[in-house]
Specification:
This protein is of the alpha+beta class and about 700 residues long. It is elongated. Pfam families: RPC5, RPC5_C.
């Protein structure tokens, strides 16, 4: 009560809302005028507006007779802009800067809380503003002066060159064809500054007629600032309860809610994500994160999720790189899409990104120039690949962004082995597509890079294999002695028949296992496809328990027989690649995972009726030793057996033979006159894998 007595009400004023100029009234904020421009002598020569952009351009006259006006400066500006010649296109026809252009910009984006007020006879009339525009001087005449100056310089440089000389000046024209624009590229183009500027420039100006302050039309329009009806019934907007009036004065902050950044359309909240099937959840997470350890993936999927089901689903959308899961290339680049940078189709992008992923299975470091040189892709695409899974280090290259996940590799050796088989198949495809050289297949050693316990060298791997074999050998000897003792106790005749049985202690075989990869780094701590932490009951380097030998031989013989019945001639390198793909399709724990050496595989090939063809390759050939070993099925039981044997005899004498020689030899040996088409058919059937 004391505060109210100290601040008494002096006068009550009626407030009216005028609607006549609603959505038509603008407030112009002029800059401070120079002394040569006053309110009384300013004349608006022209005005124009772009309604959609709420952009206004005013041209105002300058009082050149004002004593504060610098006439010499005005003449110099006019001369620079228009030159010495005066015509209809001249900006300043009086050869004097006698006008100034002002351009507007929006002072506030939301003007709903602003109004123009007129006080008259104890009444306050309010008209809401539709826009508040700040006018600033425009200096486009300076651009025009620069253009004139460049034109004069070009004319002076041209000199007295004749028309004929101009015609003889031939210029090279480069023709470029635009690529098909993707939806993502179109959205970026629409949101670009250049596109918005172009859209604004396309809107046409609407020319306005300016009326002065004392003009009768201005007086008439000014009357619309007053409310047309003074009755309270016509101004029911102002008859509100206190709570409604307070809500009008301080409405909810809708603007702040609108200014909040919207989430991308392809991003879901975790609550929405968990309503989807498990496979879709994993695909969305991997597509957005791109590289993730398995432990992080399990934490994002929530408690109660079956790890076995997650492992089954994640292998469909990701590949294992250094113990971490990296999203597959075809998930990021679906079919029928293209690069936003270069327009390269998705198939080419997938091959390039697979090459980068494969390089990271070899080493923790990748050099960007090397990737670009091999894949032949533009630098922007290569940079995208590397940013998906690595971090740039100054003067070193790109390092894989996550550390080696040793825990996952130890807990899931079967998954690691299956992923390695897949990488071997991918490597074989990359070698054919990119014609990879040995320096591309050999990882570069980094001095500062610390060797991980599971990333061992070839010599260390052999030593570990020897130790494991010795351990298994000792256990097998003990089991054999135990079985022998049981047999002696159960069979008395055996005691008399075999008095002193000793196991011949031969030196431990150090036969190398079959090289199932192009580089040892792919194994990541595995010996011939088996993790070192597995139990000693598992065979290592071809040393199998007696009961498993027959089963392994049967499985291996079945594979070799079926392979050579489909492809009659194979090199050892191609046969090993097909065998690796066959292993990748087998379930974990299959007998063929016991370890098959090169010698075992070659012996089985010869046992199935195949012969080694000693093709006399030239000494300077760049082929590997495995590619020089050629095996062929001698008798397949079809009509082309005789023809195939003749061909193999021919190629055992020379590695390169002309077609007419082959045709003559086949005709002599088989007693048939074969034409060119028939010879081609025989070659294609006999050497389908090499054709």
């Amino acid at each position: 009560m004391a505060n109210e007595e100290d601040d008494p009400i002096i006068q009550e004023i009626d407030v009216f809302l005028a609607r006549s100029l609603l959505e038509k009234l603008y407030l112009f904020q002029y800059p401070i005028r120079p002394a040569s421009m006053t309110y009384d002598d300013v004349t608006h020569l022209s005005a124009k507006i772009k309604p959609k952009q709420q952009k206004v351009e005013l041209e105002m006259a300058i009082d050149t007779l004002n004593p504060n006006y610098c006439r010499s400066k005005g003449e110099q500006i006019a001369l620079n802009v228009d030159g010495t010649c005066a015509d209809e296109t001249s900006t300043y026809s009086s050869k004097l800067m006698d006008k100034q252009t002002f351009c507007s910009s929006q002072a506030a984006s939301n003007v709903s809380r602003y109004a123009a007020a007129v006080y008259k006879k104890g009444e306050l009339h309010l008209t809401p503003l539709h826009g508040i525009l700040q006018l600033r001087p425009s200096f486009t005449y300076l651009d025009k002066a620069d253009a004139k100056h460049r034109e004069r310089e070009a004319a002076n440089e041209g000199g007295d060159s004749s028309q004929d000389e101009a015609e003889d000046d031939v210029k090279q024209i480069t023709v470029r064809f635009s690529r098909p624009e993707t939806e993502q590229a179109r959205q970026r183009r629409v949101q670009s500054y250049e596109f918005l500027q172009k859209r604004q420039a396309e809107e046409h100006w609407v020319h306005l007629h300016y009326y002065g302050l004392k003009d009768s039309r201005s007086e008439h329009e000014r009357q619309y600032l007053f409310s047309q009806g003074h009755g309270l019934a016509e101004n029911t907007e102002l008859i509100k309860s206190p709570s409604e009036y307070l809500m009008m004065l301080m409405p909810p902050s809708v603007e702040e809610e609108n200014d909040k950044p919207m989430a991308p359309s392809n991003v879901l909240s975790m609550a929405q994500l968990r309503t989807l099937p498990l496979a879709d959840q994993i695909k969305i997470l991997m597509k957005n994160v791109k590289v993730m350890p398995f432990a992080n993936l399990m934490s994002l999927l929530g408690s109660g999720t079956d790890p076995t089901a997650v492992l089954r689903c994640v292998q469909q959308v990701a590949l294992l790189v250094q113990g971490n899961w990296v999203v597959k290339s075809d998930v990021l680049y679906p079919k029928d899409t293209s690069s936003p940078h270069s327009g390269v189709p998705a198939e080419v992008l997938c091959r390039g990104r697979d090459f980068v992923m494969w390089k990271f299975t070899q080493d923790r470091w990748v050099v960007r120039k090397e990737v670009a040189a091999v894949t032949k892709l533009c630098p922007e695409d290569v940079k995208d690949f590397l940013e998906h899974m690595s971090v740039a280090r100054i003067n070193k290259g790109w390092e894989f962004m996550l550390p080696y996940d040793e825990d996952f590799v130890k807990k899931h050796p079967d998954i690691v082995q299956r992923q390695q088989m897949l990488w071997m198949g991918i490597q074989a495809k990359l070698e054919k597509v990119y014609n990879l050289l040995k320096e591309h297949l050999t990882p570069k050693k980094q001095e500062a890079q610390s060797a991980h316990p599971l990333l061992v060298s070839g010599e260390q791997r052999v030593n570990m294999a020897k130790a494991k074999v010795k351990q298994n050998y000792g256990q097998l000897e003990k089991e054999f002695q135990k079985q022998k003792a049981e047999m002696k106790s159960n069979d008395p005749s055996a005691k008399a028949g075999v008095p002193n049985i000793r196991i011949k202690e031969e030196p431990v075989s150090v036969e190398e296992p079959m090289d199932t990869s192009a580089h040892e780094g792919l194994n990541n701590g595995l010996v011939n496809g088996l993790h070192l932490a597995q139990g000693s009951s598992e065979p290592v380097n071809g040393h199998l328990p007696g009961g498993c030998i027959d089963r392994v031989a049967q499985e291996l013989k079945a594979f070799v027989s079926s392979t050579f019945k489909k492809q009659f001639v194979l090199t050892l390198s191609e046969l090993k690649r097909l065998f690796n793909l066959h292993l990748a399709s087998l379930p974990p724990g299959h007998t063929l995972f016991s370890g098959i050496s090169d010698k075992m595989l070659q012996d089985m090939v010869l046992d199935t009726g195949c012969k080694q063809i000693l093709v006399p390759f030239p000494p300077q050939t760049a082929a590997s030793p495995d590619e020089l070993k050629v095996y062929a099925l001698w008798e397949a039981g079809d009509t082309y057996d005789q023809h195939r044997q003749v061909l193999l005899e021919i190629f055992s004498k020379n590695y390169r033979v002309r077609r007419n020689v082959i045709q003559n030899q086949l005709s002599q040996e088989c007693g048939e006159d074969l034409n060119k088409q028939e010879v081609d058919r025989v070659l294609k059937v006999s050497f389908c894998s090499l054709w």
